[in-house]
Amino acid sequence: MKYFFFDIDGTLTDIHTGKMVPSAIETLRKLEENGHFVCIATGRAYYKTINAAKEAGIHNLVSNGGAALVINDKLVRNSPLDHALAVSLLQEADALGIGILISPSDSIDVVMKDHRFLEQVGERKEPTNYFYEPNLVFADIPDIYKIYLSIPEEEEDKLTLKDTLGHIRFVKEYLCFQHDEKDKGIMDMVEYLGGDIKDVVVFGDGENDMVMFRKEWTSIAMGNGYEPLKQMADYVTDAAENDGIRNACLHFGWID
To answer: Is the distance from CB of 247 to CB of 237 less than 8 angstroms?
Structure first.
């Protein structure tokens, strides 16, 4: 039995159309029929992953950068960021005059103590509910799931606490702080299921997939993927839209 973990964008989907690749979905069903475990592994928030999982017919998820686990459609855990580290980062950013948005839950809702973020970079590039709370005290927020800071890349070094939390720059205008431990989420999932990590197989295409390309298991990069990721891979398959997932599974004999 193998434990398969798939990234979404550019892996299960055609990066040009955003649509699920039919041969990939067909392959997932065949893997399950052959007794294998099939799961999505993504940095996306849990709430953003549910619909993609339903569309793919997948019932197991590692999402929120490894902090959220779903097994057989049941949410087992969804952990926020380390509270003390998040508060310290927010206080430093606030003192530097950086615009701040905070996700206090796994949802499209964000809170802000002022309008600096919107004034500095405008609204985010995805659906977001903005809540203005002028008396907001960072330490009083019970859970902090994500932090968005309006700081350009060339000024990132001003944040001395930048590397205390996982972060990624999806767009040039702001930096997002979120969990970045998909590999740990995968290990936790396999441990929960009583499996062996040497039986793990991961598929990915992007820079943010590098964290889950580990030597303890099999890592497969899509042909359309990030070049440094391909160099880390045990095997490079075809592009997602060229039946990359199916072709890799045929190559290794996981399906026929």
So the answer is: yes
Q: Counting every residue, how long is the chain? A: 256
Q: Which of 248, 61, 99, 113 is nearest to 176 (CA)?
A: 99
Tell me the two tokens of residue 9. 């964008």
**For residues 237 and 227, what is the distance between their CA atoms, to the nearest angstrom?**
13
Q: For the segment 220-234, what is each residue's pLDDT rounded down to a tens digit?
A: 999 999 999 999 999
Per-residue pLDDT reduced to its tens digit, 71-100: 999 999 999 999 999 999 999 999 999 999
3-state DSSP assignment of residue 144: coil
User: Helix count (H) and strand count (E) of the chain?
Assistant: 7, 14
- pTM value is 0.91
First CA to last CA distance, the chain: 15
- Nearest residue to 189 via CA among 68, 36, 56: 68
d(CA 248, CA 63): 24
Query: Tokens 């206090």 map to which residue?
Result: 104
User: Which phi and psi (to 5°) does residue 22 adopt?
Assistant: -55, -45
Tokens representing residue 168 in the block: 């990624």
